[in-house]
Amino acid sequence: MRGTAPERFDVFGSRDPSREFDRDDGGSVVREGATLAVGRDVDAPPEPTVRALRDTRRWPDWSPSVSGVESADRFVETGTTGRVRVAGVWVPFRVTAATRFRWDWAVAGVPATGHRVERYAGEPDRCRAAIEVPLIAAPYVPVCRRALDRFAALVEGE
Questions:
Q1: What does the pLDDT read at residue 17?
Q2: Which sign, positive or negative, has the C-alpha torsion 6, 116, 13, 11?
Q3: Do the beta carbons of residue 129 and residue 148 sit within 8 Å?
Q4: Interval 9-16 mean pLDDT
Q5: Residue 52 — φ and ψ, nearest 5°?
Q6: What angle do CA 111, 114, 115 make, to 5 degrees?
Q7: What is the mean pLDDT of residues 128-147?
Q8: CA angle centred on 81, ends 147 and 105, rounded to 5°
Q9: Of the candidates 36, 27, 23, the residue with the CA atom closest to the CA atom of residue 145
Q10: Of 27, 52, 72, 126, which residue is 20 to 30 A from 116 by alpha carbon distance?
Q11: Cβ–Cβ under 8 Å, residues 158 and 72
């Protein structure tokens, strides 16, 4: 069903009708100001999809760069802290902002990727997961694509 645009929400949960894209079954990369949004459709409802995205215990299951997580919070919220194992090294993280369908973090004190789930109007069993990458980290886009493919397989298999 090409041409169906996802409902876009800003960080405050308000609908953003100014950003509409054609739905696709694969991944896409869209420039959004100072970031690149790497997105992928997921054949699952938005609520369990965003729950899985916020679940720190599941990050190593889908993220190629995170091999371990330690945090007192299983599901991230604004202010969640902990550490992640990246390239064999433990580094601290802090969730800098979180709303119902999105969260951002800083890793080792450096602003890192943003994560969000977007709903499709009229399609309650389908959504889009996206990872936002700062332009300066554009070489990280292929890793994000791989992460989203793994994430979609994980969520769709439940």
A1: 36
A2: negative
A3: yes
A4: 34
A5: -65, -35
A6: 150
A7: 96
A8: 45
A9: 27
A10: 72
A11: no
d(CA 64, CA 128): 19
Would you give the end-to-end CA distance of the chain in angstroms? 24
This prediction has a pTM of 0.82
Cα separation, 117 vs 128, in Å, equals 6
Q: Based on the number of CB atoms within 10 Å of its own CB, is 33 exposed (0-12), middle (13-18) or buried (19 or more)? A: exposed
pLDDT of residue 158: 81
Per-residue three-class SS string for the chain: CCCCCEECECCCCCECCCCCCCCCCCEEEEEECCEEEEEEEECCCHHHHHHHHHEHHHHHHHCCCCCEEEECCCECCCCCEEEEEECCEEEEEEEEEEECCEEEEEECCEEEEEEEEEEECCEEEEEEEEEEEEHHHHHHHHHHHHHHHHHHHHHHCC
Encoded amino acid at 13, one letter: G
- The residue with tokens 């793994």 is 150
